[in-house]
Amino acid sequence: MLRFSDGVDIDTSGPLRILNLHDGLYVVGEGICFPADSQEEAEETIRDMKERKEKGKDADDEKA
């Protein structure tokens, strides 16, 4: 849980998702919180993170 001085709490647990707060958009989930300049950027960030995660799983499978 992230707690900001303006009283906003962000739960970073759970799946990746887009959070729209009074001060902007954020990609949150899996223990992270990134600001995003637009909905498109947030969606792209999630896609990229999921792709990297899948590539990591594929590499682990090849090692086994």
Describe this structure in words.
The protein has one domain. It is 39% helix and 31% strand. The chain has one helix spanning 39-63; strands at residues 2-3, 9-10, 17-21, 24-29, 32-36. Strand 4 (24-29) and strand 5 (32-36) form a beta hairpin. The longest helix is centred in the last third of the chain and has 25 residues, at 39-63. The N and C termini lie far apart (35 Å).
Return the domain count: 1
Reading side by side through the largest sheet, how are the strands ordered?
3-4-5
**Biggest sheet, open or closed, and with what strands and sense?**
3 strands, antiparallel
Radius of gyration: 14 Å
How many β-strand stretches?
5
Class from secondary-structure proportions: alpha+beta
- Overall geometry comes to elongated
pLDDT < 50 stretches: none
Distance between the termini: 35 Å
- The average pLDDT value, as a whole number, equals 90
Determine the strand fraction and express it as a percent band: 25-35%
Query: Treating each run of at least 4 consecutive H or I residues as one helix, how many helices?
Result: 1
- What is the N-to-C succession of helices and strands? EEEEEH
Q: Estimate the helix proportion, in percent.
A: 25-40%
